[in-house]
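Re: export button greyed out
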Amino acid sequence: MNIILLGPPGAGKGTQSDHLRDTYNLAKFATGDMLREAAEAGTPLGLQAKEIMAKGALVPDEVMIGIIKDAIEGMPTEKKGFILDGFPRTTGQAEALDVMLSGMGRTLDHVIELQVVDDVLVERISGRFSCAKCGAGYHDSFKQPAKEGVCDACGSTEFKRRADDNAATVGKRLEAYHAQTAPLLPYYAKTGRLQSVDGMAAIDAVTAELDGLLGKAS
Ligand code: AP5
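Workaround output, generated via the alternate export path:
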């Protein structure tokens, strides 16, 4: 099963794709996470991406298409498919993905949009933090660790916040979403591939709706 999760910054793509990865034994390719790892490692690509991400702009299509092609080609054979979180983000990336998958003899089974209005996104992003050791995601209001200051997943007490999660950059990321990524919705809708989920609902309710779409009662 191959899935794309679409939605604006803060819509819940990362939160839900972790669940989908674990529940359906999928490889998860989150392009933002991949770029942040490259930036932390100080690779030439990472350093270029770090500057672009700090401005809330998009990394060039040819770079992202190459990253995803390598990731899908190198996917572990025991995985039952993949989930793309943050890719494609432009019509050029979507068209390249269609060509790439056709060449690999793979299909897209679900393209799912998480619908959330802009006002809510700013609140979600500004309250977000993650475990510095294992990357598990949390929120000041919506998803706190069961024991304050201790990661539920790995027990670490170190947490971090993303450099691009400040008000000015979030505004730019939303502009980039509406100008460059929202046109993907009609791109997938016109070939009957788009499914939409109410991303404004509580995290568990969104998860249940996704499981309903993917055929597993939760
Ligand atoms: P990326 O890392 O992909 O960021 P993004 O798309 O802006 O998405 P986010 O990670 O901010 O949000 P999310 O939807 O995953 O929300 P989350 O689940 O964390 O990209 C970063 C940058 O990399 C881009 O700006 C660009 O520069 C570059 N880049 C990446 N891919 C690229 C590409 N393909 N092409 C070009 N450039 C690219 O949820 C947010 C918070 O809300 C969390 O705290 C969560 O707990 C909470 N939450 C989630 N769901 C709910 C809910 N239902 N109710 C209440 N709270 C919720």
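The mean pLDDT is 95. The button fix ships in the next patch.
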